[in-house]
């Protein structure tokens, strides 16, 4: 092997090692606060809905809006830090989120198809938490903590009367998102 080839191989190894050792820090604190506000609004609007289908539509609409806000805030934070959302750790973070999110969507559809809405809040909290916990492996420890707390709230939603589901969603997607959004904004930049 030539000296140039050996040097290139060493540089590739060093770059890959550094990527594996780095953390994904584009988790948006301010964006998390906005996402929490969206969830609190969804909880209020959802509580006014006359049918379970309309309640579900309210929460799915809020999830879509909050997801778009989260992605935009993440891209903005990464851009300001001179990072990309296509790096190795960003891909690992996304992969950690993807499986629980897809499972949540499939279970939600299945529950809707049979007309069972009472466990949806618990499912959403548990699977969102699982996604943050697994995706958070390559991020700052606060992401893993919020994931664990979401899962705890999901278990609590299972153990309390179904009528409390909207309250658990407000506490989780609203309260936890707001609280950790403030923490991340203060301690991990924007």
What does this entry look like structurally?
- By secondary structure, the chain is an all-alpha fold.
- It has one domain.
- It contains 7 helices and no strands.
- Helix 2 packs antiparallel against helix 7 and helix 5 packs parallel to helix 7.
- The longest helix is centred in the middle third of the chain and has 30 residues.
- The radius of gyration is 19 Å and the shape is elongated.
- About 3% of the residues have low confidence.
Quick overview of this protein structure:
By secondary structure, this protein is an all-alpha fold. The chain has helices spanning 3-21, 29-47, 52-81, 88-113, 120-135, 141-159, 165-188.
Key attributes of the depicted protein:
mainly alpha, 7 helices, elongated, single chain
List the helices and strands and how they pair.
Elements: H1 3-21, H2 29-47, H3 52-81, H4 88-113, H5 120-135, H6 141-159, H7 165-188
How much of the residues is beta strand, in percent? under 5%
| Backbone structural class | mainly alpha
Quantity of strands, as a count: 0
What does the radius of gyration come to?
19 Å
Q: What level of helicity do the residues show?
A: over 70%
Distance between the termini: 46 Å
Describe the biggest sheet?
none
Low-pLDDT stretches: 17-22
Instruction: Tell me the number of helical segments per DSSP (H or I, 4 or more residues long).
Output: 7
Assembly classification = single chain
What's the overall average pLDDT, rounded? 87
* Element-level helix/strand string: HHHHHHH
């Amino acid at each position: 092997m030539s000296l140039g080839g050996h040097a290139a191989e060493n540089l590739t190894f060093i770059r890959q090692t550094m990527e594996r050792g780095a953390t994904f820090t584009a988790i948006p604190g301010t964006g998390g606060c906005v996402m929490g506000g969206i969830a609190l609004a969804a909880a209020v609007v959802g509580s006014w809905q006359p049918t379970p289908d309309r309640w579900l539509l309210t929460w799915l609409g809020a999830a879509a809006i909050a997801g778009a806000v989260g992605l935009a805030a993440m891209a903005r934070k990464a851009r300001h830090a001179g990072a990309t959302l296509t790096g190795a750790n960003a891909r690992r973070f996304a992969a950690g989120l993807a499986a629980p999110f897809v499972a949540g969507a499939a279970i939600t559809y299945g529950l809707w198809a049979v007309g069972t809405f009472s466990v949806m809040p618990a499912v959403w909290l548990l699977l969102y938490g699982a996604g943050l916990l697994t995706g958070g492996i390559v991020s700052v420890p606060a992401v893993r903590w919020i994931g664990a707390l979401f899962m705890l709230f999901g278990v609590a939603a299972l153990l309390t009367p179904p009528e409390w589901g909207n309250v658990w969603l407000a506490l989780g997607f609203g309260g936890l998102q707001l609280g950790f959004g403030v923490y991340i904004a203060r301690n991990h930049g924007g």
